[in-house]
Amino acid sequence: MLMQEAEDDHSLLIYMGATVIYGGTIFYQAKKNRVEKATAFRCGLLLLLVVEILCFSTLRSSVGLALFSLACLMFCFYTPVQAMLPVDRKAVLITGSDSGIGHELAKYLDSLGFTVFASVLNAKGPGAKKLKETCSERLSILQLDVTSSTQIKEAYLEVRRKLQNADLWGVINNAGILGFIADGELLPMSSYKQCMDVNFFGPVELSKTFLPLLRKSKGRLINISSLAGGIPMPRLAAYGSSKAALTMFSGVMRQELSKWGIKVAVLQPSGFKTAIGGNPEEWNKEEQNLLENLTPDVKKDYGTGSKKR
C-alpha cells in the first residue's frame, strides 16, 4: 500500500514536471508567434489537460507519460501560428507620429527592430522629443506637414538617403484631423477643404511620392481611415467624407498595385483617446469661424442661442 502511494506520488511529480516543461514551451511559442485561431488553441489546451488526467489515472507511469508527451508534441506541431516576418533591413515610414496611434506605433515598431521614419508636424515638439528619448538610434524624426508638397519631397529625399542597403517596407498614412463637429449645413467650406487636404489629398500625394520605393521592395501601403468613412455619422460630414475618399482611393490602389506585389490595406480604428480632436483653444476658434460664416436664414432656422442637433 505504501509502495503504491509512493509510486503514485512519484508519477504525479513526473507529470507535474512534464506539464511545466511542455506548458512553458507551448505558451512561449504562442507568444512568440501569434496563434491564428485562439479558440482552437484554447480548446486544444483543454483537451491536453483531459489527456493528462486520463493518462495519469488509467495507465502506468511510463506508458502514460509517453502518451501525454506525444500528445503535447502533436499539439505543438499542428497548432496553426502566424510567424512574424523578419525585420532585418526593413524600414517603415509613419506620418502623424506626434501623438496618438502614430506615436505609439512608432515606438512599437522600433521595439521590434524596424528602422522607423517617424514624421511629425513639429520636429521640436514634445512628441518628437519623447520619441528621441525612448526609442533606439534606428528611429529618425522627419519634419512633415502632409499638406506641404515641399516637405513631402524633402522627406522622400531624406528617407532615400538614409535607407542605404535597407528597403522601405511600409508607408503608414496615419496623419489626420477631425475638424469641428457640427451639422454639415453649418460647417464653413474651409472645414471641408481642410479635412480633405489633411485626410485625403495629403495621403494621396505622399503615397504617389513614395510608391517607387515600395515598388522596389514589394512593400505595403497602409492607410488609417475611419468607421465614419463607411457609416454615415451625424455632425461628421467633413471628416467622414474625407475618410470615405481615402478608403475608396485605397481600394482602387490595391487593385492597381497588385501587379507590382505591393499590398494596400485600410485600417478603420474605433474610438481611441488621441489628440485628433484638437484643444479647447482650437475649438473656440473653429466655433467662432463657424458662427461668422452663417447666413441670416440659417441663423434664423437654427437659432442664435444653440445649434439644433
UniProtKB/TrEMBL annotation:
- Which parts of the chain span the membrane according to its record? 12-28, 40-59, 65-85
Q: Which UniProt keywords apply?
A: Membrane, Oxidoreductase, Transmembrane, Transmembrane helix
Q: Does the keyword section mention Transport?
A: no
GO MF annotation list: estradiol 17-beta-dehydrogenase [NAD(P)+] activity; testosterone dehydrogenase (NAD+) activity
Q: Does the keyword Nucleotide-binding apply?
A: no
What Pfam families does UniProt report for this protein, alphabetically? adh_short
From the UniProt record, give one GO term of the biological process aspect: steroid metabolic process
Query: Which family does this protein fall into?
Result: Belongs to the short-chain dehydrogenases/reductases (SDR) family.
What protein is this chain from?
Estradiol 17-beta-dehydrogenase 2 isoform X2
Q: Which organism is it from?
A: Python bivittatus
